[in-house]
């Protein structure tokens, strides 16, 4: 199968050129058809996006956040950062052409269901990354459990066993900003430690940081700067993926109670 055929295609929403509008806070944006604010558990929260240059390997993430996000922060804000830019700055991204999948990866990838929001492990190169990240035994066990789940009409068992290091792998996708539309990005390492470092580097007091992995059907908080943060509440606030998924180029944002 040619690489072009394997690359995840964009959904109808993602094929539309990103349309961003100014929020009620100068300099901060709202993506496409997302609402600026949502009401959750009786409180109103703004979800504010920050447009940035393309992030590349070797960028100092703390300095990047200080330059592009800190001028907009207020005490009480939660700074949200996509897992993809954390992984990229850690050097955990590579061109798909440089990955040489094993026979096992080619075999297992055939049984992964492709979805509209990403190719996941449904191509040999991303499955090979999962085997390297998680180990063959764990992936084989997860594949067996996943097969049982499918027989019972249950989905998601594979990723529950394989873990976040597998579920967090992002494959190439036409709607992603080049060059990452032809790259594989792994799940970041030590996301909570990264969140703590970023928080501690800020001059604005009272700000917490979350590393998030969301797409247009939901997501997870994979790193946080304080164990007292209400992660379930934050997931509800971010349920519609306000930072976007295509070429929005808004990898960081702010959650602010209104």
Automatic annotation (TrEMBL):
Any one GO MF annotation of this record: ligase activity
Superkingdom as given in the UniProt entry: Bacteria
Entry annotated with the keyword Ligase: yes
InterPro entries xref list: F420-0_gamma-glut_ligase-dom (IPR002847)
A Pfam family matched in the record: F420_ligase
Keyword set, alphabetical order: Ligase
Coenzyme F420:L-glutamate ligase-like domain ranges (all copies): 50-212
Protein name according to UniProt: Coenzyme F420-0:L-glutamate ligase
Organism encoding this protein: Candidatus Faecivivens stercoripullorum
